[in-house]
Write the structure tokens for this entry.
Amino acid sequence: MPASVDAAVRRAAEHSFPYSCDRATGELLAVLAAAVPPGGRILELGTGAGVGLAWIVHGLGGRTDVSVLSIEQDPVTAGIAEAGEWPAHVTVSIGDAVAVLPGLGRFDLVFADAEGGKWRGLPLTLRALADRGVLLLDDMDPQRYELPEHHRSIGAVRSTLAEDSGLVLVDLPVASGIIIATRRPSA
């Protein structure tokens, strides 16, 4: 495991933060981050302890020509992530993703890993996806959940994605359940 990811996993464990990105999702994030073009932008919704962010930075492999913005709603949790040593082109910001998404512009890669921007406000996240941009959603396996409201939430996410004719998507039954969607270029 990359040292930066290992450090983030340790921080999460030290602070008893149980919601970090799993390894398979992280490795996929690293691969997708590596494909972001020069001058591109990456957005993570739900920084948590910074494990997913560490995978993104690992995928960039020292590149500084891509800006990375990670938004965490909980200031205490954001503090865990901010304890990491991030390159200058990486910003951890505290805020409600649904509130700030309309003013952020467009992104080449979006990892929606928080309630805001995934379970609520998904249309705002989709509007922030650039042409040829890739959206990664995790926690999409309904078998992980017992409560009916979780099943409804997953169903609503899938419906919203399916109704957007500008997206090409794949539902992968791996890790916590992953959906990847790519925005077709505008005509």
